[in-house]
Give the backbone structure.
Amino acid sequence: MAFSVKDIDETRAPLLDHLVELRARLVRSVIALVIGFAVCFAFADPILGFLVQPLREAFPEGEGQLIFTKLPEIFFVELKVALFAGFMVSFPVIANQLWAFVAPGLYAQEKKAFLPFLIATPVLFLGGASLAYWVVMPTAFRFFLGFGGEAGGMEVQALPAAGDYLSLVMQFILAFGMTFLLPVLLMLLHRAGIVSRGQLAGARRYVIVGVVALAAIVTPPDPGSQVILAVPLLLLFEGSLLLMRFQERAMGKGDSADADGDEDGDERTAESGGSETAGNSASTDSGSFKGD
């Protein structure tokens, strides 16, 4: 059975019906988020333990600890962990509800055009988050812990608070995950005709400066994290230019096929018109002959 995408919904619903549907989609999204939050809150300790692993590996063997200086701090830390993980778990449902609300207003060709972006978005986000967790955070934490030791005859020891550590981890994951969506943004802009591949290629030097500045802003102030973020972003930018070239070729072939189809249609119309003219002429001649 061939996969087919339905064309735009030809029914016209009143504005009130759209608002009712939007409310229903939002309610379902919130319910999914609440369920995800409740499930993840029950497993908040294992999830927090998973997030703590990069810091534990950065400390020497048998050392390192997380502290909390306020009595309710660890409780709010677990709430944040559950909310963060619950959103990640419920995101497919939320994205599906958003797509179900928007899709009826799109043509079949537009739906097919958006499908690769819908697939690439979570994949790229997970790729950036994985890079942050497995590579960037251990490197950055070892860099920060390297400043410990002695100063003025006193021991300088790292005692990170649980709340501050969680905020830093979320900053790493969100920063790398969101910035890895750069190809999706560029391809959407190119698809909409806002920017062209030639314009982006001509502005490559400015893009390099912007990527380095962005890496310096969204990452902690250590050169290792900035380099680890800037290099993949530049590679993703170059990959986006390559995909744009393929996209332009595909669009050019499609336009050529449409133009050939239009020409063939015009020729068939002209031929049929000529045949009809010849038939009319023959009928006229026959009528004249009978009259004579």
